[in-house]
Design goal:
Elements lengths: L2 H8 L4 H16 L6 H8 L3 H5 L5 H18 L11 H19 L8 H9 L10 H14 L9 H16 L10 H13 L3
Helix pairs in contact: 2-3, 2-5, 5-7, 6-9, 6-10, 8-9, 9-10
InterPro entries: Homeodomain-like_sf (IPR009057), HTH-type_TetR-like_transc_reg (IPR050109), HTH_TetR (IPR001647), Tet_transcr_reg_TetR-rel_C_sf (IPR036271)
Keywords: DNA-binding, Transcription, Transcription regulation
Pfam family, one: TetR_N
């Protein structure tokens, strides 16, 4: 038994989870493209063959590692405001959080093999507890609309798509940099369209 495997099992850590965690750490540092099984095994401190006892292939491990990377990056972000927060401030917090998350995770997807992306997508959205950022934001906006804080007919799904889409667009640029005041401007534009008049 490899030394790291013994420590992982003795500590009550599932070896499969340990291997996914090792892949997620490497992906966070250098992205998923070109990552080898040997590098993941080295990070996990196990023999390379151990990985094939727990995963069908490298693509499965990389997809799971990407999922782990997204969840870990999200855990490091500040919490979202409560529904009672003023809508403009809350919407700004949601937008800044989405931008911060995108800045951390988008580089991991650069030059990703289509097979890995397909496997990643099949696992479901890892962000917002599986809900996904767009749906999480749309649900928040629906709750605020139901409370009367947003215009009754406001197209909240479109507003959520616009915000998260803008986060994608600005963080996909090379180099990824969010222009000063971008989040504030985006929130102002959205609120002008959905605020109670």
């Amino acid at each position: 038994m490899a030394p790291r495997r013994a420590r992982a099992v003795d500590a009550g850590v599932d070896l499969r989870d340990h291997l996914i965690g090792a892949a997620a750490r490497l992906i966070a540092r250098r992205g998923a493209a070109g990552l080898t099984v040997r590098e993941i095994a080295r990070e996990a401190e196990v023999a390379t063959g151990v990985l094939y006892n727990h995963f069908a292939d490298k693509e499965e491990l990389l997809a799971l590692g990407l999922h782990g990377h997204v969840r870990a990056a999200e855990r490091d972000l500040p919490p979202l405001p409560a529904d009672g927060e003023e809508v403009g401030r809350a919407l700004l917090a949601y937008t800044k959080r989405a931008l911060d998350l995108h800045l951390v995770i988008v580089p991991a997807f650069a030059n990703l093999a289509p097979e890995v992306l397909e496997r990643f997508t099949a696992l479901g959205n890892p962000a917002a507890g599986g809900q996904g950022l767009r749906d999480q934001l749309a649900a928040y906006l629906r709750r605020r609309r139901d409370a009367g804080d947003i215009a009754p007919g406001a197209p909240v799904d479109a507003a959520a798509t616009m915000i998260i889409g803008a986060c994608h667009e600005v963080t996909l640029r090379v180099p990824a940099a969010v222009p000063e005041g971008f989040a504030e401007d985006l929130v102002t534009i959205v609120l002008d369209g959905i605020r109670v008049r």
